[in-house]
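Progress narrative, Year 2. Work on Helix-turn-helix transcriptional regulator from Nonomuraea diastatica advanced from sequence curation to structure prediction during this period.
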Amino acid sequence: MTRGFFATLGLSVDAESLYRVIMREPGLQVEELAIRIQLPPGHVHDALGELTRLGLIQPSWERPGHLHLVDPEISLTSLLASREAELLQRQQAIAAGRAAVNDLIAEYNGRNGAPSRAEIKYLSGLDDIRTHIEVMGRECVSDVMAFVDGGPQTRENMEASRPQDQAVLARGVRMRSIYLESLSNDPATLAYVNWLTEEGAAIRTTPVVPLRMIIFDRRAALLPVQINDTSMGAMVLRQSSVITAMCALFEKLWEDATPIGVAPQREHDGISRQELSLLRLMAEGNTDEVCARKLGISLRTERRLAADLMARLNAKSRFQAGVLATRAGWLTDDVAARLP
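Result:
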């Protein structure tokens, strides 16, 4: 056992030295102990008092006037458990203090209109982004909401996220994520999502998500600086009005999304929700590359789906396919309103 361990238990250097001597050579008198650890008898008496107070030694019933070393498996384990309980209480007090401080800051800001910390923090580089996700995950106490775009997730991302997700869920935090339907095409991503649900997370899917986003405790949101290029970095938003709007967006998409493991329903004329989403993207004038990225599918798959839809609609162009799909009643009114 190292010095760091004994210090954690609250032992002084003298008490630790004395404890090690008593463990190796039980039965030594105070004078002998003082010689062994090279301390004055008065310091030895103080250290013995410390060990007794911590329950590591106690007066012997069999040999009056002598001290008995308590079984370390009992004494040290009990002392460590006590320190763990104290640490937990301090952590809970700190969490309560943080919440109180946030409330006071919000009250002050409401009266003075001058926030004490930046409402937008920009992050550059994968290391910085992952560090902030880890920190915000540790501080999260109620719920996490996430849009996960990009289709199949990289092995590195899933390996980095697994211990963080597990720790958050173990604390009883509610975790909900909306993935792309195309995740079913990638066994590794599907296996990770199934593991998340077994750990207690709620997962749903939808053909398209508006952007990559994570909201922590409805107080902070992490999202990319540029929606179409996550390599440009990310930002942390804390503006309450913006967070409220983003939470409302998530709840709306969550209501319409399909629970993981349930086959997505087909809409008009047997067309799938993914095909409908592709038609909307085509009607908006998006390129094949953009459509593929937003759906989380390969460019080859996107072009095959687009060609099939154009053939079914007897359309000669992608834009005409959107117009004909609207006339057929396949697209919603908001898309139809933008078409001639």
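The longest helix spans residues 72-112. The chain has three domains: 3-70, 120-259, 268-336.
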